[in-house]
Write a structure and sequence with these properties.
7-stranded antiparallel β-sheet; 26% helix; 3-stranded antiparallel β-sheet; single chain; alpha+beta
Length: 246
């Protein structure tokens, strides 16, 4: 089944009594809530500064993760279609699609995370994957810090080794590579990246999938999503959000 399956999506909306509307989210104001759970941010900062990769569980407060999941499931205004997944461009400057809760998260991240001081929110996406699919291939992002978190319940996923999580290689693209060399899905670029990683054998960090887990890492590290395996049904599809800061 391809991602762009209109009948399955419409059946999902009807079964949840969701009305289809063309109204767009244009309210960017921060909600009067706290979205991010309290952490020992000093320890988080020390880990990030040392490893350039840090993982935090129970990232969002209360039902915030589930609200973001439902936002994608119910709204589903896809900007980009790929064979295995669809993506919403959530960047305020590039799209009118924005959920107010996201304003809380982007701003609270800056307020709470010491390593984001002096950085600016750049852009964001949300991704939804076919129930059985490949992940986003190996690439690097032209930013300073990547904040990637998962909002599909563990009960919806087939949690098995090598699936649903994220791999990070702690190495940057060569300085003379352009954007198209390290962030492209065309076969030539992918082969170049694979050869580069094979020749340099950098250390790889594998982060297993977990609901409401956030992975924060240096955006210019090569990284890829693992293949996805979730239980049948549109509501069980793996959804993640990615924020980039420069």
């Amino acid at each position: 089944m391809s991602y762009n399956d209109d009948s399955e999506y419409l059946d999902f909306l009807l079964s949840n009594k969701v009305l289809i509307t063309t109204e767009e989210f244009q309210k960017f104001d921060r909600l009067p809530i706290t979205a991010i759970n309290n952490q020992d941010w000093r320890a988080v900062n020390e880990t990030y500064e040392k490893d350039r990769v840090v993982v935090i569980d129970n990232f969002l407060v209360g039902d915030c993760a589930d609200r973001l999941r439902k936002f994608f499931l119910f709204f589903n205004n896809i900007d980009d279609y790929y064979p295995d997944y669809g993506a919403i461009n959530l960047s305020k400057n590039n799209s009118q699609i924005w959920f107010p809760l996201l304003t809380n998260i982007t701003e609270e991240c800056k307020e709470l995370m010491p390593f984001l001081q002096g950085k600016q929110f750049d852009r964001a996406w949300a991704f939804i994957y076919n129930n059985e699919s490949g992940g986003v291939p190996v690439h690097a992002d032209p930013a300073a810090i990547n904040i990637n978190f998962w909002v599909t319940p563990d009960s919806s996923m087939n949690l098995k080794e090598g699936f649903n999580g994220l791999d990070i290689w702690k190495i940057y693209p060569p300085a003379d590579w352009g954007y198209g060399n390290y962030n492209s899905q065309n076969p030539v670029s992918r082969k170049r990246v694979d050869s580069f990683l094979s020749e340099n054998a950098p250390s790889k960090v594998r982060i297993e999938y977990k609901f409401n887990r956030v992975v924060i890492f240096d955006s210019m590290f090569f990284h890829q999503s693992n293949p996805v395996s979730s239980k049948p049904g549109y509501e069980n599809r793996r959804i993640n959000y990615t924020f980039l800061y420069k």
